[in-house]
Structures are given as structure tokens and as C-alpha cells.
Amino acid sequence: MDDFTRKFRITADKDAEIHHILTTVYQALEEKGYNPINQIVGYILSEDPTYITNHLGARTMIRKIDRDELLQVLVRKYLGQ
After folding, report:
1. Which helix (H) or strand (E) holds 4?
2. To 5 degrees, how large is the angle CA 18–CA 65–CA 21?
3. Nearest C-alpha neighbor of 70 from the set 40, 48, 27, 49
């Protein structure tokens, strides 16, 4: 039996899933005439799902993302890591 802890990363898969969800949410908000950036920021700050439209299932999709994970992905992408 191995006596050490194995580490594995699922970050790439999670990042891809979050990217897909954010892209879909952005598109849905844009199609409905909202300012997508303002609405997504409002959601992130308040975690109030009413900032996100139901169009294209966007509200359901964004609620699948843990807000802390979403912020981590955004910061990593912004800093290029």
C-alpha cells in the first residue's frame, strides 16, 4: 500500500464547464436585451438568481456553479494563470 497522498487536478474540466455556463448565460442575457456584464456581476455579488434570465435555461445553469469556484476561475483567468 502506498503511504503518500496522491493529488489530482480537475481544474481544467471545471474551468471548461464554468466557461461554457458563463458563455451561455452571457448569450441569454444579451438576447433578452440586458447588459450581461452588469447582470452577472450583480449575481456574483448578491447570489440573487433574479439577476439572470430564465432564457436558454441560464438561471438554472448558473446556479450549478459554486460562487467561490466561479470567483477563483475569474481571478485565475484575469491574472493569466
Report:
1. none
2. 35
3. 40
Nearest to 56 by CA among 16, 24, 33, 9: 24
Residue 46 phi, psi dihedral angles, 5° rounding: -105, -20
**What gap in Å lies between CA 33 and CA 35, rounded to an integer?**
7
State yes or no: pLDDT of 9 exceeds 90.
Answer: no
pLDDT tens-digit readout, 12-62: 788 889 999 999 999 999 999 999 999 999 999 999 999 999 999 999 999
Residue 22's Cα: distance from chain center in Å? Answer: 5
Report yes or no: 47 and 18 within 8 Å, Cβ to Cβ: no
Residue type, 31: E
The Cα 28–Cα 44 span in angstroms is 17
